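Q: What would this chain look like folded?
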Amino acid sequence: DRRIFKTHFVLQRLRVCSEWCCAVALGMAGPSFNSFMHLWDFIWLQTFLFKKQNKKQMCVKDVFGALRVEFSQPVNLEEVARINPEVKAGGRFAPKDCIALQKVAIIIPFRNREEHLKYWLYYLHPILQRQQLDYGVYVINQDGEEEFNRAKLLNIGFAEALKEYDYDCFVFSDVDLIPMDDRNTYKCYSQPRHLSVSMDKFGFRLPYNQYFGGVSALSKEQFTKINGFPNNYWGWGGEDDDIYNRLVFKGMGISRPDAVIGKCRMIRHSRDRKNEPNPERFDRIAHTRETMSSDGLNTLSYKVLRTDKYPLYTKITVDIGSPNS
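A: My prediction, written as structure tokens:
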């Protein structure tokens, strides 16, 4: 590269010198040759470096395939940070020597699941780096004791992540789901992507064809086209089916990896307090077409209480109000 640079530099200098001499002879340039050449050197060097940088190749995934995922041993986050030195504060990573496949924000709705989050960070950071993504991890923590609202937290994650970086893809992941194959790339596709296709919870089968829960990926354009996710599903259940309806009503389909690559393990746990089944969910799902234009990103209301940049993730604690507010 250095020899190529010197050769090009000398040849270009000779060409410019001859052009400048002709210009002076014709009265088209002044005599300040040194000033002219200093300016030209600077411009040419910047152009050369820009072109060299833009010759970077697209990243190629360096994945293993099927992975062993287990939850028998406790996880120490200091050790996880030590073995992932390329991950920067706030859970940010970008490949150095190639162009990342996509700029991905990973959004995790959260409350009182610290042990699950440790496992997620332990497994996912190495996977995401091997997938050569330019990514950030955002844990959206619901403050208070009101009913949990998964979909609203995901909307907030979308809005807050875009304030930090120009992400073009958003992966929405429950904190207790770990992929069992790193060929299941956490990126966006031409159609919305359902990533958690075959979970151990369901006997490694898709529970029903319209299922869109667990882990999903939507591009910025796809997400805004459906007005984001609904804000009015308080408690457990229903929001993923509402999201599926939104996609269908906007003419989109669902893409999935095959059942082997899409395998996931769930960290077993009892149902969280204040996350009981939502008795209104079936009625709300039945009226998605009428409500989706007035319930979503355009009606999102919340207050950020604090933002913490930890070594492996960004935690944003929010007040999202209550079902009656």
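Residues 2-53 form one domain.
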